[in-house]
Amino acid sequence: MLPVRPEVTRRTGNRKPRRSRGERLAPYILVAPAVLIIVGLRLYPLVLGVNFSFTGDGVLNGQPVGLDNYMTLFGDPLFRQAMRNVALLVLLLPVAVAIPGLLATFIYLRVPGHRFYRVVYFFPAVLSPVIVGAIFNLLLAYGGPFNGLLGAIGLGPVDWLGDRRVAMLTVVGVHVWATFGMALVVFLAGFATLNSSLLDAARVDGASLVQEIWHVIIPGLARTIQFVFVTTMIGMLTAMFGLLFVMTSGGPEGSTYLPEYYIWIQQGQMNRPALASAASTVLFLVMLVVGLLQISVLRRSGRED
């Protein structure tokens, strides 16, 4: 009997079994329905909307007008105010992320009553924006209970929804209160992946709570924080219509306009669908830039890890 050479055995053992054609096609078949849904219900309407933004409204309906809609758009004071409010949302974004992050930290550290707080913090997320807006319309009315409380301590009433200097901040604050429960859940999921031995080591070394958060928790939840940043920003850009409609209707003097509210006004009340499509395209580009920046940060973080 001839001896079998070791290298032949080694090559045979390392050779991967050939997959059949059906096995190779199976992943593509499984994802095909989702891809078709995305293409049919998302990408195709998006392309149609971008194309429609270069056509005219009214007597020029369907006729190519080039960049006229975009020139009209950026010449409109209401749209410029909406874009300034987008910049305000970007500035307030760290606060909107820090609030659920800190609350999730206290729940993770098991402060007294943490189970009760977990339920209470998430409860606003299940309420309709219309219900939330109606409730805060009553609470923040000029003669409402909140101003009554301020008057009792000598601070005087504030026109929370009628003063253009504070109306947008008020609506954003209500939106953060109504939606931070979902971010809280994401943070708690991130804490499940945090190495608790690092916190124990920090406590043994005498680290304070602030030092634990800054040097252990924040680096350990870097990817979770980045995810919450981008989802919170997208929510602010696309999920505040209900609150704006109920609480301020874009007022006072257009100070609470956001792109999505401007789009609804142009399409639903002014009957200018081409201009609304142009505004939708601009909003999409803003969201795309936010998404690309987030991907860039995630890749850089992955390389550093």
From TrEMBL:
Q: Which UniProt keywords apply?
A: Cell membrane, Membrane, Transmembrane, Transmembrane helix, Transport
Question: Where does the chain cross the membrane?
Answer: 25-44, 86-109, 121-146, 166-194, 227-247, 274-293
Span of domain ABC transmembrane type-1: 83-294
How does the entry describe its membrane topology?
Answer: Multi-pass membrane protein
Entry's localization field: Cell membrane
User: What GO biological process terms are annotated to this protein in UniProt?
Assistant: transmembrane transport
Q: Please provide, in alphabetical order, the Gene Ontology terms of the cellular component aspect for this entry.
A: plasma membrane
Top-rank lineage group of the source organism = Bacteria
Q: What is its main location?
A: membrane
**Record-stated family:** Belongs to the binding-protein-dependent transport system permease family.
Protein name as annotated: ABC transporter permease subunit
> Which organism is this entry from?
Phytoactinopolyspora mesophila
